[in-house]
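Training component of the fellowship. As part of building independent skills, the fellow (R.M.) carried out the full modelling exercise for a liganded target. The chosen ligand was flavin-adenine dinucleotide. The inputs are recorded below so that the supervisory panel can assess the work.
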Amino acid sequence: MKPRTENSTTFSIELFPPKDELGESRLWEAVEELALLNPDSVSVTYGAGGSTRDRTIRIADELTAHTGIPSVAHLTCVGSTRVELEQILDQYQAAKISTILALRGDPAGGPDAPWISTPSGLDHADQLVDLVRARGNFTVGVAAFPDGHPASHGDFAADIQVLLRKQAHGASFATTQFFFEIDAYSRLVDALAAAGSHLPIIAGVLPITNFKQLTRMAQLGGTPIPAAISERFAAVAGDEEAGVELGIEIATQLCEKLLSTGVPGIHFYTMNKAAATAAIVKNIGLR
Ligand SMILES: Cc1cc2nc3c(=O)[nH]c(=O)nc-3n(C[C@H](O)[C@H](O)[C@H](O)COP(=O)(O)OP(=O)(O)OC[C@H]3O[C@@H](n4cnc5c(N)ncnc54)[C@H](O)[C@@H]3O)c2cc1C
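Fellow's submitted model of the complex:
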C-alpha cells in the first residue's frame, strides 16, 4: 500500500479470481476501466478453502505487471498447514506481492459455523499475522467488522480485543466488511481510539448492483441491511437500471459521510465490475 499523506484518503478496489475464461475476460475489462482511476491498491481475494490459491497469485501478479498498481493478496488459514502457508507466502514474495491481507477464512458451513482445525495449521488470523511477519518483509492487513463478526454474536468488546491483538502482532491496517451505517464504522474507530489504537481502518464499501445478491452476502457477512435501504430497493424492484442507480446513490452518500469523518481509505467491493465503483469515485471526487 502507498503511504498515506496527511489529509489524503486512499482508494482501493477488490477483485476476485474468476472461475472461467468468460469471467476472466470480464475481469480484465473491469481492470482496464478501474485502472484509469489510479487506485492506490488492488486486492485479490482467496477462495474458500484455498480454492483459488493459484489464481489469486497469478492475478495479483499480472495485475501489478499490467497496471503498475500495487496488489494486495488475501490469504486464509482454511485447510492449509503452517508449512503450506509458508510456501504460499514464498510464492507471493517471488511474485513481488508485498502486502497480504491475513484472514482466518470461513469454515465450509459459513462464518458462524463451528471452526474446523487443520492438523498442523492455524486457527486464528492473529496467528497468520505472526506467520506472515516472520516469513518475509510483508505489510500485513487484517479484517475488521463494524457490525460485529458473525461468530462473536454481538460481543463487540471481544472483536475490539481481537483487532488490538492483531495490531500488536504486526498488522498495520484493517479493512472492514461492508456496512451501511456510518455509526457502525465510527463506533469501531472510537472504541479502538479509546483503547489507545490508531490502526487505520479502511472502510469497505459495497456498491449495490443487485439487491438479491446483496441480501445473500449480507446474511453471510452478518451485515444488517437498514429497512430504509430495503424499502428503496423494493420501490424499484424489476427495474434493473433504477436499481443500479439507487445502489450508486446509497454508496455515494455513505462515502461522503465517511470522508467527512476523515476516513483513512475507502475500499470498494467491485464484484469484478467497474461502472458502479467508477461512478461513485467520480461523485465523491476521490479521483
Ligand atoms: C476485508 C475482508 C476481506 C476478506 N477476504 C476474504 C478472502 O479473500 N477469502 C476468504 O475466505 N474470506 C475472506 N474474508 C472473510 C473472513 O475470512 C471471515 O469473515 C472469517 O470468518 C473471519 O476472518 P478473520 O480474519 O476476521 O478471523 P479471526 O480474526 O480469526 O476471527 C474469527 C473469530 O474468532 C475470534 N477470534 C479471533 N482471534 C481469536 C483468538 N486468538 N482466540 C479466540 N478467538 C479469536 C473472533 O472474535 C471472531 O469471532 C474477508 C473479510 C473481510 C472483512
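The panel noted the following from the submitted structure. Residues 45-46, 48, 74, 76, 101, 103-106, 111, 124-126, 143, 149, 151-152, 158-159, 162, 175-177, 204 surround flavin-adenine dinucleotide (CB under 6 Å). Residues 10-284 form a domain with the TIM Barrel fold (CATH 3.20.20.220).
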